[in-house]
Write a structure and sequence with these properties.
Blueprint: E1 13-15, H1 17-25, E2 36-38, H2 42-57, H3 66-82, H4 86-96, H5 104-116, H6 120-133, H7 143-155, H8 161-173, H9 185-197, H10 201-208, H11 214-221, H12 227-232, H13 239-256, H14 261-274, H15 277-293, H16 304-321, H17 325-336, H18 346-358, H19 362-368, H20 380-396, H21 400-412, H22 418-427, H23 431-443, H24 448-454, H25 465-479, H26 481-490
Antiparallel strand pairs: 1-2
Length: 503
């Protein structure tokens, strides 16, 4: 009536299916201690796990005590996942989270399962329930990154807008924070817009008061939809002041987390906004020297596998901003040979290819990307970066057939990265198509903020001849009367007191 074994020194307590049936059918209650058994690891455990599903689908399931139903559903879901039947596992977890005794992890696993089967509406619903029922759980690491990923994906789908806004509203009420207590400003931006569209200015101002990041404040400042909020608190939307505040906040975070390189990685973005490139370079050199001096058994930071590649990336970005192109390329060559989160380095490989194109070395860009293809390790955006880099290199080398194939990929996947698609259209010199595309983005409520941010004039940085040629084509596009009118209809374009340093 039970299965018993060890699990590498640990044991897993579950309720044996046969005894569940005995308990459910017997007129004499079975003592609870008779239902506690040990389950084996390996094939024995797998067989026992499969039996749980027989319990769940049995007509007798509803006769079990609720706590036993919950246990059965948990194990049935795990068994289905182990067999790769993720839709079935998700269905069990949807049932499970309806029980009052469900716990936060049940809801998170439901959301994760919904994402796996691409049921984004249910992923949002699960996380909304989590935020409302257990508000203190949503900001516990490492949950914020997962929650933000789901919210971002749901928010891009116009059909799921109600589910997205319900999720963001629940997160706001739960005082959701990202790492280092950073507010998820992009989410709050959408909540402000929703309040304005409902003509609820007090609510819009309340939500906007939590927004801090320079990028979000910029998008709001140049977008006419937010004029009532910007006009009510102009000091908050002083971008130079916001950049200074962000730098000061980043310095405090670094002081409070001295063994986390990620704190510096985030702080450097604020320094870039202020144009403090020499300072970023000096800090990168100091960090790398500190790591070099430390013995292998006692590294000075706890997250080298997560963040060291971005220190090199920031060093190269600072060098480019100082016009030191060859040094920057050498640093990026070092960076791409480092692991990224204990796996292949996708980010720096793609960035290096872009920088070789900028440097007028398309053959080297293609060499870097040799054998690099889209896979599970590469995000959809990363695949767009890959094909954009190849498209540009192929064009420069006169490989028209290869360039056309890359261009076709960018066209068919444009929803993954509208900015990269727009850049490719502009690169081929089709000004009419580029203008139509930019106007389309400006008129799309979901794309407007990013489009308006792209058309601003930022503090100047050094450019290679290839970068300058691209910049001149961009300026020609923005000077077209139809484009200028489209910008003015929904926002404004002006000189901004910050820098935009490319990664």
């Amino acid at each position: 009536m039970h299965k018993e074994d060890t699990m590498k020194g640990r044991t897993l307590t579950v309720i044996a299916p046969a005894l569940l049936f005995l308990s459910a059918c017997s007129t004499t209650p079975v003592a609870s201690d008779r239902l506690q058994v040990e389950v084996v690891a390996g094939s024995g455990r797998a067989a026992a796990m499969d039996e749980w599903e027989e319990v769940v689908v049995s007509p007798l399931f509803s006769k079990l005590p609720q706590e036993d139903q919950v246990s059965a559903l948990r194990f049935a879901a795990s068994a289905a996942d182990e067999r790769g039947e993720h839709a079935e596992a998700h269905a069990y977890r949807v049932m499970l989270t309806d029980y009052p005794s469900a716990v936060p992890m049940d809801v998170l696993l439901r959301a994760e399962g919904a994402m796996r089967v691409e049921d984004w509406n249910d992923a949002a619903a699960a996380l909304t329930a989590l935020a409302r029922r257990w508000p203190g759980e949503v900001s516990l690491e490492p949950r914020p990154a997962f929650i933000a990923h789901v919210a971002f994906r749901v928010g891009r789908d116009k059909e799921l807008r109600p589910a997205y806004l319900s999720l963001v509203e629940a997160l706001f009420e739960a005082d959701f924070k990202m790492v280092y207590d950073t507010p998820p400003d992009g989410l709050w931006e959408d909540l402000v817009l929703d309040a304005l569209q409902r003509r609820d200015l007090p609510r819009a101002l309340d939500v906007a008061g939590r927004i801090q990041s320079v990028g979000t404040l910029l998008r709001m400042k140049v977008d006419r939809r937010f004029d009532a909020v910007v006009g009510a608190n102009p000091d908050q939307f002083d971008l130079a002041g916001a950049a200074r505040r962000a730098s000061a906040d980043g310095q405090r975070v670094m002081a409070n987390h001295p063994r986390e390189l990620y704190a510096f990685v985030q702080h450097a973005y604020a320094l870039f906004d202020e144009g403090r490139h020499q300072e970023v370079l000096a800090q990168c050199d100091a960090i790398l020297a500190k790591i070099e001096r430390a013995p292998d058994h006692a590294p000075p930071y706890d997250d080298l596998d997560r963040s060291l590649n971005w220190v090199y990336n920031h060093k190269a970005a600072a060098l480019r901003a100082l016009g030191r192109w060859h040094e920057a390329l050498a640093v990026m060559e070092q960076a791409r040979r480092l692991d990224e989160q204990r796996g292949p380095n996708v980010s720096q490989t793609l960035n290096l290819a872009v920088h070789y194109n900028d440097a007028g070395q398309p053959a080297r860009a293609l060499d870097v990307l040799q054998g690099f293809e889209c896979s599970d390790a590469v995000s959809p955006y990363g695949c767009m970066q890959l094909h954009a880099a190849r498209h540009r290199a192929y064009r420069e080398m006169g490989r028209q057939a290869d360039a056309a194939a890359a261009f076709d990929y960018l066209r068919s996947h444009r929803d993954e990265a509208e900015g990269l698609w727009a850049g490719a259209v502009l690169d081929v010199g089709d000004m009419d198509a580029a203008a139509a595309l930019l106007i389309e983005q400006l008129q799309d409520p979901l794309e407007r903020g990013a489009a308006l941010a792209r058309v601003q004039d930022y503090r100047p940085l050094p450019m290679t001849p290839s970068m300058r040629a691209s910049h001149e084509r961009w300026q020609q596009l923005l000077a077209r009367p139809d484009v200028a009118a489209a910008i003015d209809a929904v926002g404004r374009r002006s000189e901004q007191p910050i820098y935009r340093t490319a990664d």
